[in-house]
Amino acid sequence: METDTKDRLSARIEGRVQGVGFRNFTQMRARQLGVSGWVRNEKDGSVQLEAEGPRAALEELLEAVHEGPRMARVESIDADWEDATDEFEVFRIRR
Q1: Beta 47-53 vs 91-94: how paired, if at all?
Q2: Strand ordering across the sheet containing 91-94
Q3: Residue 12 is among the residues annotated as catalytic for this protein
Q4: Residue 90, pLDDT score
């Protein structure tokens, strides 16, 4: 059944995305969408996102992180799509 297929989204988000609640925003939205995976701050000031779930939910998540929380300013997102590996149970913030 096609609705059961899952994809994996890997995205690197650049801009004013650290210190503005971006990871919490992403986690909340991912959980609302029923997506599993993680989000973390990177040393270079970007945010890395790894998420798995139905393609439509991942596309909604990608759209949401383009906006980000109110204080964020997303300048660019480098996103890649792959087949899901089913390695995540929930969506977490990694430190």
Answers
A1: unpaired
A2: 73-83, 7-16, 47-53, 36-41, 91-94
A3: no
A4: 97
DSSP symbols for 6-41: -EEEEEEEEEE-SSSSHHHHHHHHHHHHT-EEEEEE
pLDDT at residue 3, as a whole number: 54
Q: Which of 23, 29, 70, 94 is catalytic?
A: 23
24 has catalytic annotation: no
Q: Can you give the residue ranges of every domain in the chain? A: 2-94
- pTM of the complete model: 0.93
How far is C-alpha 40 from the chain's CA centre?
9
Given a contact cutoff of 8 angstroms between Cβ atoms, the answer to whether 40 and 48 are in contact is: yes
Given the residues 16, 41, 55, 92, the one annotated as active site: 41
d(CA 68, CA 72): 6
The fold of the 2-94 domain, in CATH, is Alpha-Beta Plaits (3.30.70)
